[in-house]
Amino acid sequence: MTTMQNTVEHLIVHQLHKEPNGPARVALGSAPLVVNSASQRLIDHLCELYGTRNGKGFGKFEADDAGYAMPGLIRQYTDERIDFHALSQQMMAELQTRAEAEPLASGGYVLIAQVSNPAMQFLFVALISEVIGTAISDDMNVADSIHLDMDHLRVAGRIDLGSYRAGGERYVSFLRGRGDVAAYFKLFLGCNDVHTPLKETQKLVKGLEAFANEQAIAGNERDEMFQRAHSYLDALGDGQGEVDLATVAEQVFPAAPAQLQSALQNEDLGINDGFVPDRRAIKPLMRFKANGPQWKLEFDRASLRSGAVIYDKYSDTLVLSNIPDELKKALLEQ
């Protein structure tokens, strides 16, 4: 994955103190930080981690300003009625309230940054815990070293400010994680990630087709890949199982699942995990459907390999074989 050049416009670090089943309190940073090489590396690493994490939810702000603080705060911030420092402090007050209501929530450092890169300008929030490692001191002694646990980023979210200003539908994203801990952070962000299984399944099918094209997967290999995808998603839809992109990648492209997983979690697709596949939307994996001004066609994709359907690109003609008797009779009567 290519690392995008990030410009850190504002950055501040606060702290949320909370033990599971305990009260929550905050310690506020006194002022936004001056961005140096260390903080730039931190932001770059966090943004890259966030981009590669599987299982993100996408949506927009809830319409209920009374029940959710974040929509009003972002509106005030983009209208320049509050500055970044005040925004971050009020965000921490909302985070404290939400964490207090979730017994299993735990504390850590809360990094809030406004970042811009060639793709977007966004507000990034991450809750990062500490971990004890080992270091060698200048006098060659072994000592404990406390540092940020970057490898286990589980609580983070992002607000695409440009899309928000433009009235977009999917300008908030967050790590879905597991259980109620992720749910409280979604409430903190004020995100409505309602999604329909039909649309999410269509996006997944689109992602599978795009991956096959990009990797030049054709012929029988393409048919077999789509057959695996259809069988797995159809079984999920029949049994009301939920989609997990990592598992889909393992089932559909076992030769290199990480490669397919990376393609499916591309944020341009914006696929939400956790939906039950709509079985109507997976038909394109097995069936080819097209139409022109005077005709409509639909046939199994495998027909192109079996010879039942032949496309001659030089004469720009499509030949159908094994015509059933009923169709032949109907054609002769025309």
Describe the structure.
This protein has 334 residues and is of the alpha+beta class. It has 3 domains: 7-192, no CATH class; 197-285, no CATH class; 287-332, no CATH class. The chain has helices at residues 37-52, 69-78, 84-100, 161-165, 179-189, 197-214, 219-239, 245-252, 257-264, 303-306, 325-332, and strands at 7-18, 24-27, 56-61, 108-116, 121-128, 130-136, 142-148, 155-160, 172-175, 191-192, 287-292, 295-300, 309-312, 317-320. The protein has an 8-stranded antiparallel β-sheet, sandwiched between helices. Strands 6-7 form a two-stranded antiparallel sheet. A two-stranded antiparallel ribbon has the order 11-12. α2 (69-78) packs antiparallel against α3, α3 runs antiparallel to α5 and α8 crosses α9 (257-264). The longest helix is centred in the C-terminal third of the chain and has 21 residues, at 219-239. The chain is elongated, with a radius of gyration of 25 Å. The relative contact order is 0.12. The mean pLDDT is 87. InterPro entries: Nucleoid_associated_NdpA. Pfam families: NA37. Belongs to the YejK family. Keywords: Cytoplasm. It comes from Chitinibacter bivalviorum.
Set out the fold topology.
Elements: E1 7-18, E2 24-27, H1 37-52, E3 56-61, H2 69-78, H3 84-100, E4 108-116, E5 121-128, E6 130-136, E7 142-148, E8 155-160, H4 161-165, E9 172-175, H5 179-189, E10 191-192, H6 197-214, H7 219-239, H8 245-252, H9 257-264, E11 287-292, E12 295-300, H10 303-306, E13 309-312, E14 317-320, H11 325-332
Antiparallel strand pairs: 1-2, 1-4, 3-9, 3-10, 4-5, 5-8, 6-7, 8-9, 11-12, 13-14
